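Name: Cyclase family protein
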Amino acid sequence: MDWIDLTRPMDETLTVYAEPGYSDPPFRVEPWCDIAGQGYAVQRLALGTQCGTHIDAPAHMAEGGVTLEALPVSALVGRYVTLRPGQVPERGDATLLFVDGTVGPIARAGFDAALALGFPVWVMAGGLQVAGEEPLFLHRALARAGIYLVEDLDETAAAHLPDRGEIIALPLCLVGTSGAPCRVLARGDVLR
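Structure predicted for Cyclase family protein:
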């Protein structure tokens, strides 16, 4: 199977997280210099650490949580197994947990069982909710457990992944941050 790009494009149509009284920094690309004036072109980027497809370090939701650089890059490349509401997968040889959050909430017992599998990185398509819990419960619980979360994937592309395969999720190499935008590629073992 060919690699599938699960990264959301970053352009003027990109929406950022917002709620009443708060918004993440807007995404902007502005000209800095051009070939006619400087001999080369450079653009200035303005964005937040949780912009577009990104990874959350535990520091994003847990006071005193570790920041992005604490995660070895080797933890972001490997085999995945898929978690779907109502099903807790067997870990097998997987090093990453792919979460299909597009099909509805997960029961608290299912979430706790998935947490017990011990994956250091969860890669999530959609906005999985834990039934009966507040909207950010999953994010906070993962952060408290020291788990990194890759999220805001292109859900249309993610829908084509089978239950097992490989994922590469490479964030910017930022130090001391709660997260970073990243490029996420995946390929499944077989087509659905």
